[in-house]
Specification:
The structure holds 2 protein chains of 2 kinds. By secondary structure, chain A is an alpha/beta fold. Chain A has 2 domains: 16-60; 83-262 and 327-508, 3-Layer(aba) Sandwich (Alkaline Phosphatase, subunit A). In chain A, 31% of the residues lie in helices and 15% in strands. Chain A contains 13 helices and 17 strands. The two termini of chain A are 31 Å apart. Helices cover 38% and strands 9% of the residues of chain B. In chain B, strands 2, 5, 6, 8, 13, 14, 15 and 18 form an 8-stranded antiparallel beta sheet that branches. Chain B has a 7-stranded antiparallel beta sheet with strand order 7-17-9-10-11-12-16, with no helix packed on it. In chain B, 52% of the residues are buried. The chains are: A alpha/beta, B alpha+beta. At the A-B interface, helix 2, helix 8 and helix 9 of A face helix 1, helix 16, helix 22, helix 33 and helix 34 of B.
Chain lengths: 510, 1157
């Protein structure tokens, strides 16, 4: 959470004027400073970022790790953004589109019929169903009904989502390259199946910076797992900053222990004592700065201050005692339990209010290989109201006007049954060729269903949207041209949507 | 305008630099240097469309090579006309005002126009003749002359300083004065040991005025065992060491002996060439101890997976790719991974280069899946210390014998020639009498399969439903794999009465995926499941038990010999059947117990969670009972079974190896007439059913591979070669010859000149293993030694190692890196733009290892000394330590880099020598105080002052532990689990992962050095993560060095740090009198190696006053604070006093000066 060069508030006390530098440079600094003020970019003076201005960026051009060398000159946003922030509800494990959103009325009549080989084509199957002798069609177990002015078909499993369909933008033709969780979840989050690339949130933190000095720019929330469900792992590399500076990595906001790791002062140290301790540290660090003249010392002084402020601002964020009854009515009783999906949605709204740039909520458990009938209602019950509450809450507070909400998993699930199929139960294997996601809020056109799949919800037949396109579109909503938003690493202009061309989905833009 | 002027200045500066680099010839000295000045611009601005990658090349223009750049192109004006910028299209384009004509252009989005300084350099370069030079890093370094500078006095100089100071002089800068002695001893001790000097060591050094005091100090530090720990800490980043395998379950894996090997290697000052070779190919080197083999664990440090749905071929390709990229990063310092999908856009690395390099890592004797185990083959068991000597004696003998085998294999061509010439013991073919079907399956493409039997009828067959996959792996020849739905109907061949003798079988390889139903299944069948399974079949069941059935009738679902399977076992791919004994192809240990091989269990869960889970499971069971899916198919009809069923006693293993499986039947109608063979040797069987008699087994179901007609019992994704059906009983001796000898007899009818590489390999291996008496004798002796090694290593720790297969390494060039898109097959080779491999060696990892450290290799020495420099100075001479390619940074001091590289290489790759040389330099010893040079050298690239930067995560924590007296000095052993906040692992892990719960350890484990802390790849330790410790997913040769509030939270609030602060407090109270000034001075000596200067002391004393008052007034707070952590506090000290000093210690631990080196 190093202060971003584009951030406009928070002035630090120390400037390079206090550094042991020649008088001529001090003079030049003053000139730069007034120019920066004039441009409205009076950023806090931090370490090398300040010297970059002082000595001309060319001298720092070779710094790969500096946040913005001239090769990576950000000039962000590229155009007026519709969304200032985003909240990403990540459904890890892959929800079955055919049971929830992608309504296929023709399938009921085909119960247990063999799926035509022509539909399956030459697709590689996972190791789990590759050995199956048959691929029998398993229609959705639950009825679909039409909702809203748009008459959108939604499964009965999602009564709350059904209420807000007119606010949502559905993409039914999302598709990906990977057929297993580990590579697929990396691909949609970081644009690459292999580890080492920054995730969407890190790119946003790097590119757009913070809107709140006292909270992280990119926050990750984990939903407490339900042991009944098949909880595929998530790993910290999903919110890592890859080759970007690690300050842009997601900060976990936790429901167990300290909300931010190591946030709480140790027992026996009250706020006043901490303040006094920090005052002493700062005073000595200023002596060090004067003695040694290392600009990084200046940065350290600032970071200790920010740590102190975070110690107050984060507890304030997670203190829900002042939420009115209407909140609990909207989010439901679950929201009072730290770690539930509804609780995380409520926190996401509170962070949106406080200017957190990007919040990602992980909900695991959607990997319904078998027992779809047993597990899917539980999963929907856990998430449905929270999603509705979040969108509705943002809307009534006016925040949906500049917040983008995203709901997606890493791939879809097969229409054919994995394992035994009966009237009572069935399973679904991984399916990369099509799945459904939705968005709501700033930047996207509400009440749209984009893209179509075939009669088996197996292949995309109209308007395919690759996960790279999906990411390009999210960036677009936030005022970023994904092709121009690059970072030079290992000799390449790396970007979130590399390396194959990606395209913004114009059809869903507001 | 102002901007223009500034850039112009830079051009002048650049030319001036270039001028001063040159030596005596004045007119050349003003010339631009292609590598330094021009290539970076061309590379970053032009190469993506006009570089080495032909796919992306526009207008046929290639600017990275002179002959291309100046070539005439039809219909295009000349891009570069040497000496004439005004005639050069390139110059016109980059200066154009017309946005359509202007270069560079980008395919997507807008390209930035070139800057004025870039344009000026390109023009000047063309004017000077557009001279190209090969990329600097790909030319073998020669030792440059050591320059002079104004302060040179010749005698006793450190050449490093000559290079650095001469450059400073040219830039108009002065070096800084030498750091004061306390600063110096603190810096060098931290650099060489990762720990602080003790106050006593500081005092001794400060008061020692002898001129060689510093050198003595350096020698002492280099000899300390902590030196190896400090170097290992860096190397483990370079080698991507971790304690879990990284994907999906992310279970633990045992490879920590490799970590200890690294520490010991540095402490023993093992020459770097040996160190590197052992890691790349230790398993192929002569061994006196297990060190080389343990070191070869390097290859296997990368991530691996056992995710249920993973496709094994994809995983195999990914693993080889990961190792190749790691090798490129660790040893070559180039980003070879870019060439996975296409020729590198900037470097000359082609896709072919990449896959040729990957072939070296594609030939390990392992299967791609790890079975979620802590160890998976190949592994070695490290003998316990008391047995090591006896073990090593046997090992030496074994190694000698192995060397003899290797020599023979290298000489196989000659041996085979002699054997064939002698005609004494020629290979004998198996008679083709009554051979009905022979599917060699060597077509390599298409859907038509040729029947190679004599007078074959029909002559061809066609696969249906889905195309087969050809040539993924090679055995006798590139193989044939059936896709999940491929069918191979073979018509009515094999339609016999039970009184008819016949034999069938071939070469098979089963899928090596994690277990799921269908891993095994039908191999060859002429059986109709719609006709009560009438017919015959060779099959393996889900446990790998081979069986032969001749059936007249059977219940539909009927396999009465099999216990009914539990419903959930069938459904859940993660539940495995009882593990068959693993067949190992590597030598030792062979005595792995089930316990060794079992996946670790998840550690104890929290009680409440367990209860909850229990309840959930019970409920689920109930629900499942209610909703139990009715089977889709009807239950079997109740008819009696009439059949012969014979099954093998021992199961086959799922070990990714080819097996020759064959059966013969004598037409007797009795089970005793069935024999089953594996690899030409009859296996023990038992009779399951024997009541066929003369009942018919004829059926109109077609004969098939991999399926029972029409769609039952598949062996999906199995591989096949040389499948045969004989209408007679083959004799035991004939079956013995079937796997190889029959084929060798066929090959030897051709002149050797016509043999393919695969045929050559088959003959070599056949000759060695079956004909040559010496080979077989040595093999027997080795087997006996292996048994001894097993005994002598009993009870030792297991660690993953490399082990080479006897096959010839190869890989396929994959279009866009897609694992199914195989094109050209390539052998193992090094990149074409680097020196070639010697011709007379086997192309395996050992050849690669030798090549890596050969004097002709331009990269290894440079890359390695550069990383040493990075460790000490905070930034490499080449800043991009990971990329010495064209897009990497140019060296700040190219000649110094080359001098150091040559010094390293020519001095026996002596690691300690290099570190000593560097820390002895005046450059290193400069004061780090930034004065007037800051403006000219803001990032200290020119080294106008000493290094100063925030220490790495491990060092920061280690000095906290050390200063508090808590540090436990033990070296090596299994990784430990110190304090960690709750729910870090739980939040991300798979519920049955063995790393789902963090079981924090106690006692010494809390206070070991940080390089022993357990590294879980999916959830790094947060207090290390905050300080930029890498996750070890990939090679990291350069850490980020951020500064965030999260770091402050760690060092203020982490219990580890609170405990450490209290430890420092107790220590100064114990070690000094009651005077606060003394205690503050002592803290300064412990942490900063100096007595705090007065102004600092004033702050601390004032703070102490406040804290003392506060805790005297709030004894409860004092009590809470001083009792944090598991280490008991010193009860002889009053709590309020201890609390106050704890806070002062915490202040000092949090100082910028403390956490900076």
């Amino acid at each position: 959470m190093k202060q971003h060069p584009l951030c406009s508030d928070c002035e630090d006390k120390i400037t390079p004027i206090d550094l042991p530098i020649p008088a001529g440079l001090k003079k030049e600094w003053s000139a730069c400073e007034s120019r920066r003020q004039f441009l409205g970019r009076a950023g806090k003076v931090l370490g090398w970022a300040s010297l970059a201005t002082l000595f001309g960026e060319a001298s720092l051009r070779h710094s790969v790790f500096a946040s913005a060398s001239d090769e990576n000159d950000l000039k962000l946003p590229h155009f007026a953004p519709k969304a200032k922030r985003a909240i990403y509800l990540f459904m890890s494990g892959a929800p079955p589109q055919v049971d929830l959103f992608d309504y296929k009325p023709n399938l009921a009549a085909q119960f247990n019929a063999d799926m035509p080989a022509s539909v399956r084509g030459n697709q590689q199957l996972t190791g789990m169903t590759a050995g199956q002798a048959r691929f029998p069609v398993a229609p959705a177990h639950w009825p679909f009904r039409q909702h809203g002015k748009t008459g959108t078909w939604i499964s009965d499993l999602l009564p709350y989502t059904a209420r807000m369909v007119d606010d949502l933008t559905f993409i039914k033709s999302l598709n990906t390259d990977a057929i297993n969780h580990e590579p697929a979840i990396m691909l949609i989050n970081t644009g690459n199946m292999n580890a080492g690339k920054p995730c969407l949130g890190a790119w946003l933190a790097y590119g757009l910076g913070s809107m709140n000095d006292n909270l992280p720019t990119f926050v990750v929330l984990q939903t407490k797992t339900n042991p009944k469900e098949n909880n595929q792992p998530v790993s910290s590399r999903l919110w890592s900053s890859g080759f970007l500076s690690s300050e842009f990595a997601g900060v976990g906001l936790r429901s167990v222990g300290d909300p931010v790791l190591y946030l709480q002062d140790p027992a026996g140290v009250d706020r006043e004592t901490r303040r006094k301790m920090l005052d002493a540290v700062e005073e000595i660090n200023r002596q060090t700065l004067a003695e040694v003249g290392d600009p990084e010392t200046n940065s350290r002084i600032a970071q200790y201050e920010m740590a102190f402020r975070m110690q107050s601002s984060v507890p304030e964020l997670t203190d829900l005692s002042k939420e009115p009854q209407s909140t609990w009515d909207l989010y439901g009783p679950d929201a009072k339990q730290p770690g539930t999906f509804a609780y995380n949605c409520l926190l996401a709204r509170r962070m949106a209010e406080r200017g957190v740039r990007f919040t990602q909520i992980y909900k695991r458990g959607w990997d319904v290989h078998d027992n779809v009938v047993g597990n899917l209602p539980i999963l929907c019950q856990e998430t449905d109201q929270g999603c509705y509450a979040l969108v509705t809450d943002l809307k009534r507070r006016g925040l949906l006007d500049d917040t983008l909400v995203i709901w997606a998993g890493e791939f879809g699930r097969t229409v054919y049954s994995q394992g035994g199929l009966s009237q009572e139960n069935y399973g679904r294997d991984h399916h990369p060729r099509c799945f459904t996601a939705w968005m709501a809020g700033a930047g996207v056109r509400p009440a749209v269903a984009f893209g179509e799949t075939d009669d088996y919800s197996y292949n995309v037949v109209k308007d395919p949207v690759h996960v790279r396109d999906f990411n390009a579109t999210i960036l677009h909503c936030l005022g970023i041209d994904h092709n121009r938003f690059t970072y030079e690493f290992q000799g390449l202009h790396q970007k979130l949507t590399s390396p194959v061309p990606a395209f913004v989905v114009q059809g869903i833009l507001a | 305008m102002l901007v223009g002027v500034r850039h112009l200045n830079i051009v002048v500066l650049a030319v001036a630099i270039a001028a001063s680099v040159g030596c005596s010839r004045e007119h050349i000295s003003r010339r631009l240097d292609f590598n330094q000045d021009v290539q970076p611009i061309l590379a970053s601005r032009c190469f993506s469309c006009h570089g080495p990658d032909p796919e992306m090349r526009k207008a046929g223009l290639r600017l990275d090579l002179a002959e291309w750049a100046m070539k005439k192109r039809e219909g295009h004006p000349d891009a570069i006309v040497a000496g004439h910028p005004e005639k050069s299209e390139l110059v016109k384009r980059i200066q154009s005002k017309d946005p359509k004509y202007l270069m560079p252009q980008a395919e997507h989005g807008e390209a930035k126009p070139m800057r004025a300084d870039e344009i000026a350099i390109l023009k000047e370069w063309i004017k000077q003749g557009a001279v190209y030079r090969p990329h600097w890093a790909f030319e073998v370094p020669a030792r440059p002359a050591v320059p002079h500078h104004s302060a040179s006095n010749g005698e006793g100089e450190n050449p490093i300083d000559n290079f650095i100071f001469a450059r400073l002089q040219r830039e108009g800068l002065q070096p800084s004065a030498e750091a004061d002695k306390p600063a110096l001893i603190r810096r060098v001790t931290l650099d060489l040991t990762g720990l602080l000097p003790t106050p006593e060591e500081v005092q001794a050094f400060v008061s020692n005025s002898s001129p060689n005091a510093y050198e003595k100090l350096v020698d002492r530090l280099l000899a300390k065992p902590t030196f190896g720990e400090q170097r290992a800490r860096y190397w483990l980043d370079y080698a991507r060491y971790a304690d879990t395998y990284g994907l999906h379950f992310d279970n633990s894996r045992d490879i920590w002996p490799y970590r200890d090997y690294v520490i010991q290697s540095f402490n023993n000052n093992k020459p770097f060439d040996q160190f590197a070779m052992e890691q790349i190919a230790g398993d192929l080197m002569p061994m006196k101890t297990l060190d080389p083999l343990i070191g070869s664990g390097y290859v296997r440090l990368g991530v691996s997976s056992n995710e249920g749905g993973t496709i094994s071929e994809e995983l195999r390709v990914n693993i080889a790719r990961e190792r190749t990229e790691a090798f490129g990063a660790t040893f070559m310092g180039i980003t070879v991974g870019c060439a996975v999908c296409h020729d590198h856009k900037f470097d000359p690395t082609t896709q072919r280069d990449f896959y040729s390099l990957s072939a070296f890592f594609n030939n390990l004797d392992e299967k791609p899946f790890n079975d979620d185990r802590p160890v998976w083959a190949p592994v070695v068991r490290v003998p316990k210390a008391d047995k090591a000597e006896a073990y090593n004696r046997v090992l030496v003998r074994r190694s000698e014998l192995q060397q003899r085998l290797d020599t023979m294999r290298l000489d196989a061509r000659n041996l085979v020639t002699q054997w064939l010439a002698a005609k004494t013991d020629p290979a004998r073919a198996v008679s083709g009498d009554k051979l009905i079907i022979r599917l060699r399956l060597d077509e390599g493409t298409g859907e038509e399969l040729k029947n190679s039997a004599p007078n074959a009828n029909p002559a061809t067959f066609k696969t249906t439903t889905m195309k087969p996959e050809w040539g993924e792996t090679t055995w006798l020849w590139p193989d044939f794999r059936m896709q999940s739905s491929t069918r191979v109907p073979l018509g009515q061949a094999g339609d016999y009465e039970a009184s008819h003798a016949f034999s069938a079988g071939g070469w098979f390889m089963f899928r090596a995926a994690p277990f799921h139903p269908g891993s095994f299944g039908t191999l060859i069948s002429k059986m109709g499941s719609t006709q009560h399974d009438r017919g015959w079949e060779l099959a393996a069941d889900d446990n790998g038990i081979l069986s032969v059935a001749l059936v007249n009738q059977a219940p539909k679902e009927g396999k009465p010999e099999k216990k009914p399977k539990k419903e959930d076992e069938k459904k859940d791919p993660r539940k495995k059947p009882t593990e068959a004994k693993e067949a190992f192809n590597y030598p030792t240990p062979q005595d792995l117990s089930k316990k060794d091989l079992a996946p670790n269990k998840p550690p104890e869960q929290l009680k409440a969670e367990k209860e909850e889970e229990k309840k959930a499971k019970a409920k689920e069971k109930e629900e499942a009972k209610k909703k139990k899916p009715a089977p889709v198919e009807k239950p079997g009809e109740n008819i009696p079974e009439v059949a012969i069923r014979v099954a093998a006693v021992k199961p086959l293993s799922l070990d990714n190896a080819w097996k020759h499986i064959f059966f013969t039947y004598d037409g007797s109608g009795n089970a005793s007439g069935v024999k089953i063979y594996v690899d030409g040797v009859q296996v023990a069987t038992h009779v399951v059913k024997d009541n066929l008699g003369k009942a018919t087994i004829r059926t109109d179901a077609p004969m098939q591979l991999g399926w029972r007609n029409p769609d039952e019992h598949p062996a999906k994704d199995a591989r096949y070669q040389d499948v045969r059906l004989y209408a007679r009983t083959l004799a035991i001796d004939e079956v013995r010859r079937l796997p190889f000898e029959d084929y060798v007899a066929e090959i030897t009818t051709q002149p050797p000149a016509q043999w393919t590489a695969d045929q050559r390999h088959v003959i070599n291996e056949f000759y060695l293993n079956n004909v040559d008496p010496t080979w077989r004798r040595i093999k027997r002796e080795i087997a006996a030694l292996d048994a001894q090694l097993d005994q002598l290593s009993a009870g030792g720790d297991l660690t993953l190692v490399s082990w080479e297969k006897p096959t010839v390494p190869y890989a396929h060039v994959l279009t866009r890196g897609v694992y199914t898109a195989r094109t050209e097959r390539v052998g193992a080779d090094t990149p074409h733009f680097l020196p070639p491999l010697p011709a007379n060696e086997l192309r395996n990892r050992l050849a690669l290892a030798k090549w890596t450290v050969s004097p002709d290799n331009p990269l290894t020495a440079r890359v390695t000394v550069n990383r040493m420099w990075y460790e000490l100075f905070g930034c490499g001479l080449v800043e991009t330590t990971e990329d010495f390619g064209i897009m990497g940074q140019r060296p700040s001091h190219p000649q110094l880099l080359d001098w150091l590289a040559v010094e390293f290489r020519d001095n026996g790759w002596n690691i300690k020598h290099m570190y000593k040389l560097m820390v002895m330099s005046a450059t290193y010893r400069q004061s780090s105080k930034a004065g007037s040079q800051l403006a000219k050298d803001p990032r200290n690239v020119l080294l106008s002052r000493g290094p100063r930067f925030r220490m790495d995560a491990e060092m920061v924590r280690d000095i906290g532990l050390q200063s508090s007296g808590l540090l436990v000095g033990k070296i090596g052993g299994p990784s430990v689990k110190p304090y960690q906040p709750p729910s870090i692992w739980e939040q991300v892990s798979y519920p049955t992962s063995d790393t789902v719960h963090y079981a924090q350890e106690h006692g010494d484990a809390l206070h070991r050095r940080s390089l022993y802390t357990y590294v879980k790849r999916m959830a790094p330790l947060p207090n290390m993560d905050a300080f930029d410790a890498p996750t070890r997913d990939v090679v990291c040769t350069r850490r980020q060095r951020t500064d965030t509030p999260l770091q402050a939270l760690v060092t203020m609030n982490d219990v580890q740090w609170v405990e450490a602060a209290r430890g420092v407090a107790e220590r100064v109270i114990r070690e000094t009198g009651p005077d606060p000034e003394q205690r503050i001075n002592r803290m300064g000596m412990i942490l900063l190696a100096r007595v705090p200067p007065p102004q600092m002391a004033v702050v601390l004393e004032k703070s102490f006053d406040e804290m003392q008052k506060h805790y005297a007034a709030n004894p409860k707070d004092a009590h809470s604070l001083v009792n944090l952590g598991e280490k008991r506090r010193d009860t002889s000290i009053r709590e309020p006093e201890l609390a106050a000093w704890t806070m002062i210690a915490s202040e000092m631990l949090n100082l910028d000066e403390t956490i900076n080196k």
